[in-house]
Amino acid sequence: MSALMEAVRAGRTAEVVGLLDGLTDAERRAFLPELKDLRKELRTAPWGHPSHHAYPTLHAAGAACETGAAAAVSWIAAGDMRWSQSSSALLLHILGDRDASWLADVTHRLAGRPAFGGVSYELMAGLVRLSGCPVPTTETYVQAWVAHTGQLWQLGDTLFDRLRRDPHLAELVAALFETNDVSGPMQWSSNENVDGWVDAIARLTVESALDRQRTVDACVARLLRGNSTLDHRAFLRVLKGLALTREEEREHTADWLALASDAVPTVAAHAQTVLGSLALDGELTPRRLAEMSDAVLFRSEKKLVRAQLVLLGKVLARDASAAAKVLPAVAKAFGHEDTDMQERALKLVERHLKKVDSAEVRAELAAAVDQLVPALRTRAVETLGAAPVTTTPTVYEEVLPPAPEPVRLAPMPESAVGLAEEVGVLLAGGGDVAAFERVLDGLVRHAYQDRENLVEALGPVVARRWWARAEPEYAQLPDDHFSKSHRTFGSAENALDLLLATLRSRLLTATLHDGVRHGHRSQDCGHTALSRAFDARVWEVAYRLRVEPLPFLLSTPSWNTGLLEPDELVDRLDTYRRLGARVSAADFAQALLRVRRGDRAAAAAAAERAAALGTAEGVRLARWLSSGEPVLPTSRRRSAGARVQLEFGELVSLQADFPGEFRQLGQPTTVYGERWHCYHWNRDMQRHWLAVLPELRELVAARIVREVSTAAVDDARGAAGVLPALAESEGAAGEATHLCLAYGLGARHPEDRLAAVDALLVMAARGQLDGDRLGTDLGQLVRSGAVKPSRLAESMRTGAATGANTSIWGILRHTLTALLADVDGDIKPAQARGLGDLLAVAAECAERSGARDELPHLAQTADRTGSSRLVTQARRLRSALVAGVAA
User: Residue 776 and residue 543: Cα distance in Å, rounded?
Assistant: First the structure.
């Protein structure tokens, strides 16, 4: 071994640098093969191995020996050495004797790499100084400059002082306005005050260190370009910090119009304020004001629409001649989704209509009346002289999206290589129930047919798994992991790992046998029964792969929902009989839970065939199919704080003749006896739990309702994502299913609410939605504080927008009955607004569907004094129910 390589391996950096000094490029390149071999060696060494201390020295030596610019950059920014690099100062010393053009090439190549590559700013800036090249203005360089400049607070000066001394200030600030994802560092990297960057840029423009017009133009252009909300807020603060003059504001009138139309609400509000100031000073023509209003009044943000209507009212009060141009723009708000905005716009038109002499403009206003809700439309017909709306009564027909159809599982891949590809996809991306079940059955079938071929095909897939490279002295062995853990598979991926490790002989037979004998060892929680059933089958399949391979699985579902057709199960048992194969207890138990019993004719025919097989399993299947449709245990509601949950009684049919790991499925569920901490953190498993009991989704819903409730009560994200799968499952949709749906409709995050609305529409399309029950549940949850009425209103509005007006009204009439009973003189403003929102959705649904129900307690709310949203929407709903108008 050469002295250089010995020093590199030993991590003696100073000695390595000394040995490299004075060598020619050719002599340095000669060491590259050995350095690359060492890098490969370190890359495969276990984490924490003593050899890793050579990384910083290796990093420096490779940078010195790579004489091509591209190769040097590739070495310096290599991902495997990112966390053990040599210092920037050392790299600058090593590279300092290179040609300036070479250094410039390296500089711009480093600056052109992705920002997440972790290239040091000190290194790039040092190379700029050494080479004298133009400063890079790439995203990577600018982001690093912002972060680095703001972090130098320990020097005792201010951000303003540091920026003023920067020789490349103008170029980098110009690039700052064109670079993404700099708002975070701009907001937290200044230690001297909250608005460090805002204050610094403003002061630099005052001192003419930055060209003011160029800076203002760049800032406005950045806001027009758009990006993340965080970026918008940061650059809006910069723009405000520049304190534009009235002349500068006039110069950007077209930009303010564009921002008011399309920007995020905070930026649009600022543009609206600027334009409003110009309009009130007579510096915005009525045509421009109308153009602005056309855009703003079309937006969904009520605050912006309200502010625009206020502005238009002020302008019309000052300038009567603007009415002909402005009032047609006001009429655009007649079609706004919020009826409060419609009424405000109508009042504005009524107040200033006398200022319009043009018959053409009056006709245009009258034509817009059709967009108003019926109650306002009737009023507008009288005040605007519009023609009365005559409609032929029609029977309302609800429009619901088609219910999703179950999908047959595709055949298993015939080749081991094809199966291995599917295993790789499943391990990389998770996959659904159908993908997991196909892979599981494929592994069993191919292991039975040709185990060696299967193991060979799986080689490239399992080579990257943690257990494939585990060494006793450096990593936990698979046996340790699976035997000492709580034996619960937190994901389908972990379950596959057990099977793959078994096929690769990485697990002891004793470990597998122990898993089958002792099963689930985790502490009980609400999900334990479902988890135990899922885990038991996987453990037993793994054990049989080792000692007595199964020809195939009996429990592989026919459909993606987990259902298994009875005639298919009989055919599989018949094949087992002919092969003389011993049935796996857990596999057969899961098959029984999956077999379709709801179709009584098919079940009866299959039961007769099963009994004729003459096997114990055939007799058991015949008895199971003949026992009738699945039934539910008795239930009882319990409250815990704001939450409402369910307790289920015993279900004897799921305990008799089932293996021990499956019997808990039929045991009572309790609210107060459960532990709320558990190991089932992966919500993707909920879909697999639904496939454990595909015809008894109520039992699954009862065990996951508390977790779904966190979407509304605890503002958890993603907790309601299982609801569409729950809606597509089979079996009765009872109290637990509807309670889960109720919590999802009141979820904090839009994606959870959308999942709940999807589930609601699926259940409605399948004829399984009980609007009375769901509406009553929602009323109870809103009253307890578990669900906020404003969030529920958003969900209901989304559902109604699809055309499900009758279904939504059928829910809300029960919810509102409970909530309106509580309305009194002391109602809080937030509650009043939320209830007003619900009344608005209910009124819209009633108007469109022609509902004419009598709603208890509505009259007392509608008769209250004032014009709050609560009162006006109550009056609107009362009018709709009385009129029975279908829009």
Answer: 49
Confidence of residue 681 (pLDDT cuts 50, 70, 90): low
Q: How far apart are CA 353 and CA 331, in angstroms?
A: 11
Residue 472 pLDDT: 42
Q: Kindly give, in sequence order, each residue whose CB lies less than 8 Å from that of residue 821, ignoring residues fewer than 6 positions away.
A: 856, 857
**Amino acid residing at 97:** D
CA distance 447 to 551: 8
Q: How far apart are CA 163 and CA 154, in angstroms?
A: 15
Yes or no: say if 529 and 660 are a contact pair by the CB < 8 Å rule.
Answer: no
At a CB cut-off of 8 Å and minimum separation 6, what does 678 contact?
522, 523, 525, 526, 527, 528
DSSP character at residue 859? H
Cα–Cα distance between 853 and 886 in angstroms, integer? 14
Ramachandran category for residue 596: left, alpha or beta (phi over 0 → left; psi -120 to 50 → alpha): beta
DSSP β-bridge partners for residue 448: none
Distance in angstroms (rounded) separating the CA atoms of residues 842 and 863 = 18
**Beta-carbon contacts of residue 525 (< 8 Å; ≥ 6 apart):** 674, 675, 676, 677, 678, 680
Residue closest to 760 by CA, chosen among 741, 783, 787, 784: 741
- Residue 428's pLDDT is 84
Judge whether 598 and 629 are in contact, CB under 8 Å.
yes
Q: What is the pLDDT of residue 154?
A: 52
Residue 504 pLDDT > 60: yes
The answer to whether 495 and 460 have CB atoms below 8 angstroms apart is no
| Contact criterion met (CB below 8 Å) for 742 and 757 | no
Using CA atoms, how far apart are residues 784 and 742, in angstroms rounded to an integer? 13
Q: Are 553 and 440 in contact (CB under 8 A)?
A: yes
Structure tokens at 106: 């390296």
| Rounded Cα gap, residues 879 and 859, in angstroms | 10
Instruction: Please tell me the total number of residues recorded for the chain in this structure.
Output: 887
State how far the Cα of 755 lies from the Cα of 719, in Å rounded to an integer: 10
In angstroms, rounded to a whole number, what is the distance separating the alpha carbons of residues 725 and 252?
A: 51
Can you tell me the distance from the alpha carbon of 719 to that of 486, in angstroms, rounded to the nearest whole number?
23
Q: Is the pLDDT of residue 675 over 50?
A: no
The confidence score (pLDDT) of residue 756 equals: 97
Confidence grade of residue 796 (pLDDT, cut at 50, 70, 90):
very high
Residue 156 confidence (pLDDT) = 61
Q: Give the mean pLDDT of the chain.
A: 87
At which residue do the structure tokens 């809080």 appear? 828
* pLDDT given for residue 474 in this prediction: 38
39-90 pLDDT tens trace: 888 877 766 667 778 889 999 999 999 989 999 999 998 887 877 888 999 9
pLDDT of residue 483: 58
What pLDDT is stored for residue 188 in this prediction?
55
Residue 290 phi/psi, 5° resolution? -65, -40
Q: What are the Cα distances from residue 100, in Å, to 70, 93, 111, 771?
A: 15, 14, 16, 76
Give the confidence band of 479 by pLDDT, cuts at 50, 70, 90.
Answer: low
- Assigned token pair, 851: 């509902």
- Torsion region of 657: left, alpha or beta (phi above 0 gives left; psi -120 to 50 gives alpha): left
Residue with tokens 């007649």: 334
Instruction: Give the whole-angstrom CA distance, residue 843 versus residue 487.
Output: 53
At residue 367 the predicted structure's pLDDT band, cuts being 50, 70 and 90, is confident
pLDDT computed for residue 244 by the predictor: 94
Tokens read off for 853: 């129900």
DSSP designation for 525: B
Copy the structure tokens of residue 283.
């510096």
H or E stretch including 720? none
Structure tokens at 56: 């910083």
Confidence of residue 885 (pLDDT cuts 50, 70, 90): very low
Q: Which two tokens stand for residue 761?
A: 């529409």
| Cα(743)–Cα(636) distance, integer angstroms | 18
Evaluate whether 844 touches 877 at the Cβ level (below 8 Å).
no
The identity of residue 860, as a single letter, is Q
